[in-house]
UniProtKB/TrEMBL annotation:
This is Lipid II isoglutaminyl synthase (glutamine-hydrolyzing) subunit GatD. The keyword Transferase does not apply. InterPro entries: Class_I_gatase-like, CobQ_GATase1, GATase_3, Lipid_II_synth_GatD. Signal peptide: none annotated. SUPFAM superfamilies: Class I glutamine amidotransferase-like. Substrate binds at residue 129. Its EC number is 6.3.5.13, 3.5.1.2. It comes from the Bacteria. Belongs to the CobB/CobQ family. GatD subfamily. PROSITE patterns: GATASE_COBBQ. Keywords: Cell shape, Cell wall biogenesis/degradation, Glutamine amidotransferase, Hydrolase, Ligase, Peptidoglycan synthesis. The lineage of its organism: Bacteria, Bacillati, Actinomycetota, Actinomycetes, Kitasatosporales.
Length: 242
């Protein structure tokens, strides 16, 4: 694996980087380097064309207006759909997650087309905004420990038949439809409402992305004591009353 090269693409940091989700890129980069991989990181602004040669694409959350602009540009660009058709892995958060679905409701109250890379549709919730800590049990097929994160969204997301829930919530709202699901995934595309940033709080998810991108079943272990301490702290804070 020492000579392998991994191309990581951070989509539109100028529009969708308001919730600290850039941390997800740093975690993917770091965990790849710890495994001896050479990482080429590409930050692609919304006025640039999206490269289709990436191995892993990450897209973050954002406010309603930047979300609309990002969705318009990504739709026009078409590069992310081509990259996924070529086998790329995508990890998306909140606004980014909604953009990857079939459609979402934008800041002008209109239904806006997403990229259709995940079989999900988002609408605008009529209840209170979903804000707060989340804990959930990950889809057992992923073989991962409990999901922890922080949510902050008005949109709610309905899963279609070919999207699997990423987790079932024990605390918090997740997709917000009342069915207890959080996030969605298919074989190569992942979406979640979790900020935090989620890969710093759940680094094993980053390893899933790396394994898929490298097409390997296992990765060398790395020292996760720091991450485990952070996870423990957040889980305790989330479950403490008051
Ligand atoms: N604007 C979207 C919503 O409120 C996404 C918010 C976010 O990315 N945190 O649903």
């Amino acid at each position: 694996m020492a000579d392998a090269n991994l191309r990581v693409v951070w989509i539109y940091p100028d529009l969708l980087s308001t919730y600290g989700d850039q941390g997800n890129v740093l975690v993917v980069e770091r965990r790849a380097r710890q495994r001896g991989l050479e990482v080429q990181r590409m930050d692609v602004r919304s006025d640039q064309q999206l490269p289709t040669s990436g191995d892993i694409y990450l897209i973050g959350g954002g406010e309603d207006r930047p979300q609309r602009l990002a969705a318009e540009r990504l739709y026009r660009d078409g590069g992310l759909n081509r990259a996924v058709a070529n086998g790329a892995i995508v990890f998306s958060v909140c606004a980014g997650y909604q953009i990857l679905g079939h459609e979402f409701v934008n800041d002008q109250g209109a239904r806006q087309a997403g990229l259709g890379l995940l079989d999900v549709t988002s609408t605008r919730g009529t209840d209170q905004r979903c804000v707060g800590d989340v804990l959930g049990d990950m889809d057992s097929r992923l073989g991962l420990p409990q999901l922890t994160g922080f949510e902050n969204h008005q949109g709610i997301t309905h899963l279609g038949p070919t999207a699997r829930p990423l987790a079932q919530v024990r605390l918090g709202q997740g997709n917000g439809t009342g069915d207890g699901t959080e996030g969605a995934w298919n074989d190569t595309v992942f979406g979640t409402y979790m900020h935090g940033p989620v890969l710093a709080r759940n680094p094993q998810i980053a390893d899933v992305l790396l394994k898929l991108a490298l097409d390997v079943n296992a990765l060398p272990n790395v020292d996760d004591r720091w991450y485990e301490a952070l996870r423990g702290e957040r889980i305790t804070a989330a479950t403490q009353p008051g």
